[in-house]
Task: structure prediction
Amino acid sequence: MKIDLSRKVLMNMYRNLVLSRRYEEKLIELFSQGKISGWIHSGLGQEGTGVAIGESLNKEDYLVPYFRSRSSLIAKGINLNELTAEIFGKNTGCCKGRSGEGHIAEPGLGIIGAGGVIGSSIPIGVGLAYAANLEGEKRVVACCFGDGATSRGSFHEAINMAAVMNLPIVFVCENNLYAEFSNITIQMKIKDIFKRAEAYGIPGVAVDGCDPIAVYEAMIEAVERARKGKGPSLIETKSYRWRGHFEGDPCEYRPKEELDNWLKRDSLIFYQNSLKKANVIDTKKISEVEREAKNIIEKAIQFAFESPFPSLEEIMEDVYA
Amino acid sequence: MKSLNFRWAINEALKEEMERNERVFVAGEDVGKPGGPFALTKGLYEKFGEWRVKDTPLSEEAIIGLAVGAAAAGYRPVVEIMFMDFITIAMEQICNQAAKLRYLYGGKVSLPLVIRTLFGTGLRAGGHHSQSLESWFVHIPGLKVVMPSTPYDAKGLLKSAIRDDNPVIFLEHKDLLRIKGNVPEEEFTIPLGVADVKRSGDDLTVVATGKLVHAALEAAEELAKGDIDLEVIDPRTLSPLDKDTILNSVKKTSRLVIVHEGTKPCGIGAEISAIVAEEALDFLDAPVKRLTFPFMPIPFGPLEDKLVPGKNEIIEAVKEILT
Result:
């Protein structure tokens, strides 16, 4: 792993990776204790991709998030109190408790487009990119989704439209080999989703999703391409989810050896070791970052617990502007 | 006042709103350089340029998605679905995304988009080019549905639809494009959610939509010779529906005929009938009668003329009720 990025970038990604990992672990714990209603789609094991995506974007850029990537929301700057309150369905949540865990938005940070229907966010991302073009302020869109979403017509229509219109958008597909309970061999004949880029006339590349630096470097190249007006790209990140599709999913459809092999590729441990080797962090720093993460998470959970649910009147508002 | 074709009323509304607000843009299939398959966007590309009058690929789902995203980013897209029959391809984006994201995001975005589409019989082009699916959208909270019947209504309502901060489905009847009507020279808008009493009368209320407003007015003219005085109401906006105007009329005349082009089950006539039954039952002297297209796909060719309810069917229904 070559490390020639600025210390600031490396440390941002490290802090966010630790925070994301501990947050995912905490959510699993809370859900298993029955403290969160609805469901949790854990991103445990895939956090390395999201921290790099968030780091590669400017504050004004748009993020259409992949539902499993809380790490991308964190790296984009989402307020963890408001995110947690939203997951708990409280009225102090970033969506006033209306969305829950499944589709988080924070328009103030440019986080827009997620919804409960997989793949429907992709054309919305293209719309954000169209607006960015009209505006002329060089904003780009990172439009993120999983492997399953690329079976939707909306994916193909959207990426084709973005390509022919030369829009400032980076499509990021986190391929974790499973769409809910279906292995990727049920979804497609091809093995590499990035190769679909060629069908639309745009550049495509695959990177190791467990390596934040590799993802970051691919993102920077694609983001710069978009910002310069040179059009869209497709980045496929190869990774694996350690948990089921949702918490409670017994996951009988996956072979144990496959999971065991991927468990060995821990993005946090690998990244931590690389940074230690390059003298960017030491044991003292690691403890400090872990402690900081723990504090932030504890405060966020307390905030969520103490916040009220929306009232019946509140929940009926905002149907129309 | 000036005499204006329905199609130029649409064209003028688009032009004026695009001049008024640079965030308004048009997109759809063949709307740009070609000026639209029915010339509705003619001249806009030359005036406003490629990026405000955008030709898109043949991708209805992505066209609406593009509108949703651009609206979320603060723009005011006016996208076109060439034939309403194709809007079915984009139902997911319209009903799950455009209609609901404001609500799901805690009111933190508004989606000020307009989806214009050509609907209805008249081209004799068969089952995939002639449908009236307005009631599908009336059923979805978060959307507004507008259906003008005259050039005046078309221009005024389209301008309001574009200025509205909600997703609006704007339905243009393809058989009305060539009709002429009086339109003010000066700037004007018509508010959404307000019905129009197109003809005052005392004996029976006819609520009609789209091109059938004109059939109802023709029926009224003929029946007037026989001393039967029809009140003709054009809802103009189907959602939110101006039910007060309809109820006040029914309370006055005690009789109601509803005529629309969609099929009967769960059509706009079903909704209006239910409202009247709920809120004005005691005022009715006769059952409500609905005249609609029969429950079948629309056939190709001139046979469509025999199946769409028209002046004669309305006259027959009125006479039946009054005797």
In short: Strands of chain A lie at 62-64, 141-146, 169-175, 178-179, 182-183, 204-208, 233-238. Chain A touches chain B through 46 residues (CB under 8 Å). Residues 7-32 of chain A form the longest helix (26 residues).
